[in-house]
Design brief:
By secondary structure, the chain is of the alpha+beta class. It folds into two domains: 7-53 and 129-178, Alpha-Beta Plaits (2-Layer Sandwich), CATH 3.30.70; 57-122, no CATH class. 44% of the residues lie in helices and 13% in strands. It has five helices and four strands; from the N terminus they run βαβαααβαβ. The protein has helices at residues 17-30, 46-50, 57-83, 100-122, 159-168; strands at 7-14, 35-38, 146-151, 173-178. Strands 2-3-1-4 form a four-stranded antiparallel sheet. α3 (57-83) runs antiparallel to α4 (100-122). The longest helix has 27 residues, at 57-83. The two termini are 19 Å apart.
């Protein structure tokens, strides 16, 4: 006999963004912290209601740009002054002014790499399947339904209590989804 699959969480299906936002606020007030909302369009204020923290992606991009800038400066200085010093028309071995295109390009390149790979890393991508796809009404989340998932990894999660709590908030459909 196969062991039952672990539970990912409980999905509550709401009919409007206002009821979803109210449900998120109520869930936060009750102490739930690990939850996710799936909506067909952005809802103003839902990030604050869920307690989402500011992303560190900007800092990752900043590190990429500083690395690109520094690498470009050091590469030009090292090649022009140390490895292959040439005196051409009385110019110094390292002239900062002529390096602007390379400095700019390497700064932008490493910033873009930081943005793309940082986004992939922070979002946990690539992920070929997510447990929310096990929900029977997931297609509505890109059309006209508003879903709230309280995850089983939350410290306050208990299947029946969480299900009853979400039902009291006016969820039209409730479903326990497996991982």
């Amino acid at each position: 006999m196969a062991a039952p699959s672990p539970i990912h969480g409980v999905v509550a299906d709401f009919d409007s963004p206002d009821t979803l936002l109210d449900a998120v606020k109520a869930a936060r007030a009750k102490g739930y912290t690990k939850m996710e909302a799936y909506t067909p369009f952005p809802i103003h204020g839902i990030d604050e209601a869920m307690g989402a923290k500011q992303s560190i992606l900007g800092y990752i991009v900043l590190c990429g740009s500083v690395t690109g800038f520094t690498t470009a400066i050091l590469l030009q200085w090292w090649t022009g002054s140390i490895v292959y010093p040439l005196v051409i028309s009385g110019k110094p071995f390292f002239a900062f002014e002529f390096g602007f295109p390379i400095i700019f390009e390497l700064t932008v390149l490493l910033s873009a790499f930081g943005a793309v790979f940082g986004m992939f890393g922070l979002n946990g991508l690539p992920r070929l399947n997510h447990p929310i796809f096990n929900y029977s009404g997931v297609a509505g989340s890109s059309d006209d339904r508003f879903l709230l998932v309280i995850e089983a990894s939350d410290r306050n999660f208990e299947v029946t209590a969480t299900r009853d709590f979400l039902a009291s908030l006016g969820a039209e459909k409730l479903e326990v989804i497996e991982a």
